[in-house]
Amino acid sequence: MIKRKFVRIRSLQSGMKIDQAVVDRTGRTLIARGALLDDYMIGALMNRGVSGVYTVEGEEEEEKDEPQKIPEKTRQKIEELKVEDRAKVKLTESVKKRVAQGISYLYNNIESEDFVDATNAITEDLMKAIVENDSIAVDVSALKVSDEYTFKHSVDVATMAMIIGKQHGLSEKEIYDLGISGLLHDIGKTKIPNEILNKNGRLTDAEFDIMKQHALFGYRILQEKNEVSNAIRLGVLQHHEKINGNGYPLGVPQEKIVLFARIISLADIYDALVTERSYKQAFSPRDAVEMIMAMTDELDIQVMRSFLNSVILYPVGSVVKLSNGEKATVVENDPRWILRPKVVGLTTGKVYDLAQDLACANIIVK
Fold this sequence. Notes:
This protein has 13 helices and eleven strands. The protein is an alpha+beta fold. The chain folds into three domains: 3-57, Molybdopterin biosynthesis moea protein, domain 2 (Alpha-Beta Complex); 72-83 and 315-360, no CATH class; 93-312, Hypothetical protein af1432, CATH 1.10.3210. A hairpin with a 5-residue loop joins strand 10 (342-345) and strand 11. Helix 4 crosses helix 6 (172-183), helix 10 packs across helix 11 and helix 11 (259-273) runs antiparallel to helix 12. The longest helix is centred in the middle third of the chain and has 19 residues, at 149-167. The protein is globular.
């Protein structure tokens, strides 16, 4: 049986298994999740001002998932009903590698003369992946670029923002610039002290006040880059602003928040919700979408619609579990009802049109 607990730094012992990644301010992994701590690692954590870490005891039991035999008639029905998803953005492994290296370089070399060129190179890779496949949707489960949170998050946010922007009707030049703004939206975190950036647990009010300045720090960093447009800078500055005026760092009202910031804000919130951190569990994509849909007082409703039209939660061909206990294969998605695909039960061969069939109204994908 596995047991997770928070251990204060002075109570750590060599041989304990860490159940979180420890990263530096640029997102580089210093200690990987699952590593066995030694005296050197514990000393390094102390020197960095880390108050404690999550550890795990025991072994996780592997869930035995026996292959399910699907009757031939059910297979045929699945093939007959299958409607391929809208074109999704795809990043090849070579592109993922280049992008991960590029983001790492940016966050470690903000003063470099080729900072803007490096940013453009990454954005061109993302833009090419979108244009070549005529992508209008994103499979949120397939975005992962690296295990390093800041880098993964930046690329996820940029990619999602670009697809939302395309759905929203932006021009290719605007989508490109939006991608740059998304990539750099957290660049100001390079100016936040490590002990705040890597704190395990909730920040104090004073610490959060400092953290909230990262958007302003990012804006100032980009002010020194003459090649960067003001729209890109404002996207970075305002990506935590809310249409109800309760955002930060400036608390500006709805009419003063630029479109880039409205789009990046939504992509940023969604990716944060579905990502596990040392102080929180990840929400499921379904729960994250429902939470986004409830934020009508904070997020732009038109941008939200473009987001919902962009996201594919359950790709065609994937196997899901229904609330009635049956496993099913997804055969069709409706952009208007992303939480309720059409599926075929693997055991019964029954078709569940969760969006249109009233008989399925009490059934959801778990």
